[in-house]
Amino acid sequence: MIDRMSCGLMPDKPHTVLRAPDGAILYEEMLTRGGFSGAFSYLYHRYPTTPATDVTPSARGHVIASVDENGRTPLKRRLYDTRKMTKGGMPFECRLPLLFNSDLTIYFACPTEGDDVYFANGDGDELWYVQEGSGRLESVCGWLPVTEGDYVWVPRSLIHRWHLDKPMRMIGFEAHGDVVVPKDFRNPIGQLKMDAPYTHRDFVRPEGPIATTSAVQDGPRELIVKKGGRFTRIGLERPPMDVVGWEGFVYPWAFAITKYQPKTGLVHLPPTIHSTFAGPGFLVCSFVPRLTDTHPQAIPCPYPHSSVDCDEVILYLRGNFTSRRGVGPGAISLHPAGIAHGPHPGAYEASIGSTRTDELAVMVDTFKPLLPTAQAVNLEDGAYHDSWRTPAGQG
Ligand SMILES: [Fe+2]
């Protein structure tokens, strides 16, 4: 929900008659958030939205998160290597839950083909980060091009499907509340402030509308809806991509992490200066290449910290992460609240005098503890916690 957008046909006044050139009436749909009090979009369909041929429980869907107690105790630093994941499948089906709490589920997916059905996730907004690959998101709002390095926001319950140009590797955050721009980035009228780390122009919007009054976008006659962790299959009389115009704040977008403007201070600034997107119970941060601190005695490496309220998850993407060693692209670390964490031995000292960092990483802090799934346990590097031990002879 960045700002207002509109495209295609719509009547001068909402909730009034709109007709196609042949005289047929068009059908308005309101996509609303927060009941009827939050952000919303008006969608104008060529045909009624409700006809379905059949509604049944779906045999298709993705794995639903459940805790694996073996991955939960003892309380320690953990590392999951997503490079061990088997590639294949469609985005709506092949995503695997790794960590979750009541606010957020973190997935990783390695799809090699596009969705052959439409999908609508009634359980939450989806925020994806595309580590590798490219494609397009087809939705009732239009076509959204997506490429490596993009965050992609898919609003709750939006009917969509992914098309892949190249196989993807992607981390996904399913938020059970909204995913929003942190409110500190906006001025009182909602415009992104000049000191925000991105501008309105940095967001890529859907190319729409996806249909005209004489030609709807053809596609599957099958919609999978997820709600309450259960999947329902809805057979459709027609493809749902018949929106000839829309207006509002609820639409999918893409944001390239390379457009994130980092900040540098006199001395080390806390992780919150990397804030990118937020939601109830979590904060997503972007670590991008940047100059480091300017004080002649600065220690650029993060100080050890006991952030007692947060679990911290980092997906490593590129470059040497200042505070860690032995982690490569695709590794995901979990540093849980309750125990202090900090740089690997030697990293703190080695950072003194450095002037820039080339690290690229996505972090999420959650305020409730994250629970690991069996899918995460399968990817775990059991030696990670002990990698903080002082090397023999250096203690
Ligand atoms: Fe940390």
Descriptors:
395 residues, mainly beta, Jelly Rolls, six-stranded antiparallel β-sheet, 25 strands, globular, binds fe (ii) ion
In short:
The protein is mainly beta and 395 residues long. Helices cover 4% and strands 37% of the residues. Strands 6, 7, 9, 10, 11, 12, 13, 17 and 25 form a nine-stranded antiparallel beta sheet that branches.
Most strands sheet = 9 strands, antiparallel
Number of strands: 25
The CATH architecture assignment of the domain at 262-388 turns out to be: Sandwich
* Class inferred from helices and paired strands: mainly beta
Q: The CATH topology of the domain at 262-388, please?
A: Jelly Rolls
How would you state the average pLDDT, rounded? 94
Helix percentage range: under 10%
Top-tier CATH class of the domain at 262-388: Mainly Beta
Cα end-to-end separation = 51 Å
Please, could you describe this protein's structure?
- The protein is mostly beta strands.
- The protein has a domain at 262-388: Jelly Rolls, CATH 2.60.120.10.
- The protein is 4% helix and 37% strand.
- The protein contains three helices and 25 strands.
- The chain has helices at 91-94, 347-350, 374-379; strands at 5-8, 27-32, 40-45, 52-57, 78-81, 96-100, 104-109, 118-121, 125-139, 142-147, 150-154, 160-175, 203-204, 222-227, 230-236, 243-248, 253-256, 275-279, 282-287, 290-291, 311-318, 331-335, 356-357, 360-366, 371-372.
- Strand 18 and strand 19 form a beta hairpin.
- The longest helix has 6 residues, at 374-379.
- The chain is globular, with a radius of gyration of 22 Å.
- The mean pLDDT is 94.
- Bound molecules: fe (ii) ion.
- Fe (ii) ion (FE2) is lined by residues 305, 312, 335, 341.
